[in-house]
Amino acid sequence: TERIDRRVPMSRMRKRIAQRLKESQDTAAMLTTYNEIDMTNIMEMRNLYKDEFLKKHEVKLGFMSMFTAAAAAALKEIPTVNAVIDGDDIVYRDYIDISVAVSSPTGLVVPVLRDVQNMGFMDIEMEINRYGQKASAGALALEDMAGGTFTISNGGVFGSMMSTPIINQPQSAILGMHATVKRPYVVDGKVEIRPIMFVALSYDHRIIDGREAVTFLKSIKQKVEDPRRLLLDI
């Protein structure tokens, strides 16, 4: 059989993505820390209220809003993760704009949810849904993707068990969500089968210390495992 090589020009978006990813690797002192999350309580909450949520708000309740809300709360606790290096200065932001990766016909795009610190689950789900519709229609504008102080990427929708996400420059950190899989898990000294998600936080070690990164990811874990913490702001 004849073996053929086909040469196809890269799209403008693919070239831009390649450029940004390489810039990130060349700029940041990138390090990744990992943790695991027991999804039992949050899955129970979603199953209990998803129909009522859909009926009232006309949008589905997903896990992304819960992780986004947990990340926003953790960013308020550890503001360095929400900060950025600018020359010889560190710029701290008192607002939280979270870039959320969504699929589009031309590839993965990262629109920005703005002022997430003022949003509830419904607001987050509606914005993600709006951006998803715009992405499917190829109607996302550059302004939709500009800025952002933190990024959440969910490789779990494709079945990824674990990955090391690359920071979305000029941000300082990115959270990687992954597939939820039933695994043996120790609860109160006993081994139980629980739905577990591995999560990863890649961060720029130039600005974020290991203690801050680990504390930040642990805070997200605690809030997702017990969503009541979000209501109590703890």
Describe the overall structure.
The protein has 234 residues and is an alpha+beta fold. It is built from seven helices and eleven strands. The chain has helices spanning 12-27, 40-57, 63-77, 121-136, 142-145, 210-225, 228-232; strands at 30-38, 84-86, 89-91, 98-100, 102-104, 107-109, 112-113, 150-154, 173-177, 180-187, 190-204. The strands form three sheets. Strands 1, 4, 7, 8, 9, 10 and 11 form a seven-stranded mixed β-sheet that branches. It has a two-stranded antiparallel ribbon with strand order 2-3. A hairpin with a 2-residue loop joins strand 2 and strand 3. Helix 3 packs across helix 4 (121-136) and helix 3 (63-77) packs across helix 6. The protein is globular.
Topology (elements, then pairings):
Layout: H1 12-27, E1 30-38, H2 40-57, H3 63-77, E2 84-86, E3 89-91, E4 98-100, E5 102-104, E6 107-109, E7 112-113, H4 121-136, H5 142-145, E8 150-154, E9 173-177, E10 180-187, E11 190-204, H6 210-225, H7 228-232
Parallel strand pairs: 4-8, 8-9
Antiparallel strand pairs: 1-11, 2-3, 4-7, 5-6, 9-11, 10-11
Helix pairs in contact: 3-4, 3-6
Described by strand count, sense and barrel closure, the largest sheet is: 7 strands, mixed
Low-confidence stretches: none
Shape: globular
Class derived from helix and strand content: alpha+beta
- Helix and strand string, N-terminal first? HEHHEEEEEEHHEEEEHH
Strand content: 25-35%
| Rg (CA only) | 19 Å
The total count of strands amounts to: 11
Mean pLDDT: 94
Helix tally equals 7
End-to-end distance:
64 Å
